[in-house]
């Protein structure tokens, strides 16, 4: 096994651990080693699982089980925006999951997601993959519901892999706020302002994966209540909450971190995609370094404003041949930062 | 770039071309890089000047030269990536002298060149000392001296060589003004007899 393959193996294993930890924080039966210091973003987590879950059928099915049980707490607008960031296969997988939720919850909110995976595809692909990207061998009849989306997998078994969402846990704050004010932009605004000193609507929209107009409208209306304070400088309006009060109200630990998980997971997907494209291509160390250096630039752009405290290295004076090691270290350090924010 | 740099840069360019699945590429190169590669000069250079791309024709595998301006896109993309990776100027590989092809290279220029392989997909033909004298004399007169004149002096041309170079340069610029400058340059360089013969 070469260095690239060894790196990919460690990276995949670490990423799957991270996803398991997040799902466990939301009530999926699994092991949580210690109280989370992050706030889970369920939509970003679902999108990440649509791609990385292909390498861990147990995780994938546990996530689907959770969604079938708790789909009403998911924000379909956000899922739809995050879906666009996925590969075509990832979008199709998310559409297949949405179709299962549509069977349980006839509300139109899932219909748009289902239609995003409607394109016809010549021949089905295997949903589950081995770490090297080859299909996971499968016998017997495939699941008809997934096959409709061009995905071949064994029949999905409805197993009870989730318990009630531990709403009082800090990690589930996003879902708790939705339970409090409804599954709408206001819950996202509250979450952002509880975890930040102040913010203007454009920033909140960008960081919560919403469009600007509904966020600006909602923040202006919330300010009329007097609970949200408005600070206007010229045309710029910033809003502020009594953060300490709200953190006490929700019993939030001091060191809880808000992270733009949509971006963080997107960076992890980018690392996986870049390194996957290079595997098996017999690239020389210089070429590998050069390609990874371009990938590192994309990752730095994705991570900007993500609030992940990680610095993704740039190519230094050592020439491209020395960069693969630097890249691998940076990627694993980023993963570590995600696991221990 | 000195000799090891040129070697490293061209080897890396060959790797990039192979990685991109580019067609086999052969270049005819002159200027500072060729002087350094053939140990004809010791000064560093900032670029690699490409005159022509060399194509193998169907008939008996004979080579034909194709003007390097513009460089093919795959070569531009690969060279720009090399520049980014190795901290070189974006135009380190350029077709600057390719216009020389318009009025013809010295007869036998390609046959006299020395070929080096930098990877299975990249061959570079460095023009010979004899042809460099031609190009350097023409460039020195055309541009009023400068580094080309220093290179020319370093090549220390013999009388027959400078005369052949001067006659070739006249085919590229037959104007009386150029003739006057050329004669003056040859005289200043000590080639009094040859100045009278052009």
Can you characterise this structure?
The complex is a heterodimer of chains A (341) and B (198). Chain A has helices spanning 3-25, 42-52, 57-70, 76-83, 88-104, 111-115, 144-147, 173-181, 185-194, 201-208, 212-224, 243-249, 261-278, 285-303, 323-339; strands spanning 125-126, 151-152, 229-233, 236-240. Chain A is built from 15 helices and 4 strands. With 341 residues, chain A is mainly alpha-helical. Chain A has a two-stranded parallel sheet with strand order 1-2. A two-stranded antiparallel sheet of chain A has the order 3-4. Chain A starts with a helix and ends with a helix. Chain B is of the alpha/beta class and 198 residues long. Chain B has helices at 3-19, 31-37, 73-86, 100-103, 109-112, 129-142, 146-155, 159-172, 176-188, 192-197, and strands at 25-30, 48-56, 63-67, 93-94, 114-117, 122-126. In chain B, strands 1, 2, 3, 4, 5 and 6 form a 6-stranded mixed sheet that branches. In chain B, helix 1 crosses helix 3, helix 6 (129-142) runs antiparallel to helix 7 (146-155) and helix 6 packs across helix 9 (176-188). The longest helix of chain B has 17 residues, at 3-19. Chain B is globular. The N and C termini of chain B lie far apart (36 Å). The interface between A and B is small, with 12 and 9 residues.
Q: Biggest chain pair contact, residues each?
A: A-B, 12 and 9 residues
Mean pLDDT of chain B: 93
Structural class of chain B: alpha/beta
Number of contiguous helices of chain B: 10
How much of the sequence lies in strands of chain A comes to: under 5%
Q: Helical proportion of chain A?
A: 40-55%
Instruction: Pick out the low-confidence regions of chain B.
Output: none
Number of strands of chain A: 4
Q: Largest sheet of chain B at a glance?
A: 6 strands, mixed
Our measurement of the CA-to-CA distance between the termini of chain A, rounded to an integer number of angstroms, reads 31 Å
């Amino acid at each position: 096994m070469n260095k690239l393959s060894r790196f990919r193996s460690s990276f995949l294993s670490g990423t799957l651990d991270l996803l398991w930890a997040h799902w466990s924080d939301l009530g999926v039966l699994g092991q949580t080693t210690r109280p989370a210091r992050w706030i889970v973003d369920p939509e970003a987590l679902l999108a990440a699982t649509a791609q990385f879950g292909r390498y861990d059928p147990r995780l994938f099915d546990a996530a689907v089980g959770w969604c079938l049980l708790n789909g009403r707490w998911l924000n379909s607008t956000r899922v739809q925006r995050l879906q666009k960031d996925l590969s075509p296969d990832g979008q199709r997988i998310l559409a297949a999951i949405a179709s299962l939720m549509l069977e349980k919850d006839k509300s139109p909110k899932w219909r748009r997601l289902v239609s995003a995976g409607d394109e016809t595809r010549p021949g089905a692909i295997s949903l589950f993959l081995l770490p090297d990207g080859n299909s996971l061998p499968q016998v017997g009849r495939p699941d008809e519901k997934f096959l409709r989306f061009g995905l071949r997998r064994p029949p999905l078994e409805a197993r009870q892999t989730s318990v009630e969402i531990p709403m009082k846990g800090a990690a589930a704050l996003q879902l708790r706020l939705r339970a409090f004010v409804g599954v709408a932009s206001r819950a996202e605004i509250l979450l952002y302002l509880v975890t930040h000193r102040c913010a203007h609507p454009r920033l909140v929209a960008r960081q919560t994966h919403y469009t600007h107009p509904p966020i600006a409208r909602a923040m202006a209306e919330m300010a009329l209540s007097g609970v949200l304070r408005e600070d206007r400088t010229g045309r710029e309006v910033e809003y502020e909450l009594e953060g300490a009060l709200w953190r006490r109200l929700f019993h939030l630990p001091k060191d809880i971190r808000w992270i733009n998980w949509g971006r963080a997971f997107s960076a992890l997907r980018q690392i996986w995609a870049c390194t996957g494209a290079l595997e098996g291509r017999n690239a020389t160390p210089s070429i590998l370094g050069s390609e990874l250096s371009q990938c590192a630039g994309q990752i730095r752009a994705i991570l900007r404003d993500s609030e992940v405290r990680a610095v993704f290295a740039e190519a230094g004076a050592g020439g491209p041949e020395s960069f693969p090691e630097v890249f691998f270290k940076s990627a694993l350090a980023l993963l570590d930062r995600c696991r221990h924010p | 770039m000195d000799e090891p740099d040129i070697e490293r840069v061209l080897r890396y360019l060959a790797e990039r071309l192979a990685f991109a699945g580019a067609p086999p590429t052969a270049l005819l190169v002159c200027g500072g890089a060729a002087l350094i590669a053939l140990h004809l000069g010791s000064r560093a250079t900032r670029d690699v000047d490409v005159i022509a791309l060399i194509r193998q024709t169907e008939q008996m595998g004979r080579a034909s030269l194709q003007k390097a301006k513009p460089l093919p896109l795959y070569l531009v993309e690969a060279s720009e990536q090399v520049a980014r990776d190795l901290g070189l100027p974006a135009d380190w590989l350029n077709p600057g002298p390719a216009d020389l092809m318009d009025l013809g290279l010295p007869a036998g220029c390609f046959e006299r060149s020395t070929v080096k392989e930098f990877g299975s997909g990249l061959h570079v033909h460095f023009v010979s000392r004899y042809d460099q004298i031609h190009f350097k004399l023409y460039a020195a007169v055309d541009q009023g001296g400068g580094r080309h004149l220093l290179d020319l002096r370093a090549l220390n041309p013999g009388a027959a060589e400078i005369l052949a170079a001067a006659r070739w340069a006249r085919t590229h610029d037959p104007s009386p003004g150029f003739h006057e400058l050329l004669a003056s340059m040859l005289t200043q360089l000590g080639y009094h007899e040859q100045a009278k013969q052009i």
